[in-house]
Design a protein that fits this description.
Elements: H1 4-20, H2 24-31, H3 46-53, H4 55-78, H5 84-98, H6 111-121, H7 123-140, H8 143-158, H9 164-186
């Protein structure tokens, strides 16, 4: 018999995956007569949407991918149980974004979905990472560089404020991003974020 934690994990995982599977970039592109999986770097995410459709048209993609991760993590926290159930939600949303059931399992790299989850799971480190992103972007004049420094430096920031177990869980989520980049590299795609931001 499944206990309450087991129920929370199952519900969170299913809800997170379904939320993550909502192909925001594909829907935004389709509304403009473009399939982002066939143009640009062929990645259905914010970076490709910005390059192909323009910055303004890509705003819903940016916001939508963030919200997917945030809602999935929030579901885990709201259902109670151990702290890591929220991470289950974040991971499930990232997996759904990368391999979406609603878009033929052809998804993006889950970076913004990860960020959305971290905003809920580690709000103070996320706020500091945002400041880092802004500062690096201003100095380098490239949002892509600021975003990368903030995302990949996030565990170091988190380690200053949260237990090591939380940081390790964050690292596990980041492995999903690493896997997606590796798969993109082996398929010959140009990595997202190479464009000027």
């Amino acid at each position: 018999m499944i206990d309450s934690t087991g129920v929370a994990v199952v519900v969170t995982a299913v809800a997170g995956y379904l939320l993550g599977s909502i192909p925001v970039a594909v829907l935004v592109g389709r509304a403009r007569g473009v399939d982002l999986r066939t143009v640009g770097d062929r990645n259905p995410g914010y970076w490709n949407a910005k390059e192909v459709l323009g910055r303004r048209a890509a705003i819903p993609v940016f916001a939508g991918d963030l919200v997917k991760g945030a809602l999935a993590a929030a579901v885990g926290l709201l259902l109670g149980g151990p702290w890591w159930v929220g991470y289950v939600g974040g991971a499930a949303a990232m997996i759904g974004h990368a391999w979406p059931v609603f878009a033929g399992l052809r998804g993006g790299r889950s970076v913004l979905t990860f960020v959305g989850a971290m905003i809920v799971l580690a709000p103070l480190p996320a706020a500091i990472a945002l400041v880092v992103c802004v500062v690096v972007t201003v100095v380098t004049h490239r949002f892509a560089i600021g975003a990368r420094v903030a995302v990949f430096g996030f565990p170091l920031i988190q380690a200053l404020f949260q237990p090591r177990a939380h940081v390790a869980a964050t690292g596990a989520l980041m492995c999903i991003i690493g896997l997606r980049f590796a798969l993109a590299a082996t398929s010959g795609r140009r990595p997202a974020g190479d464009q000027r931001g």
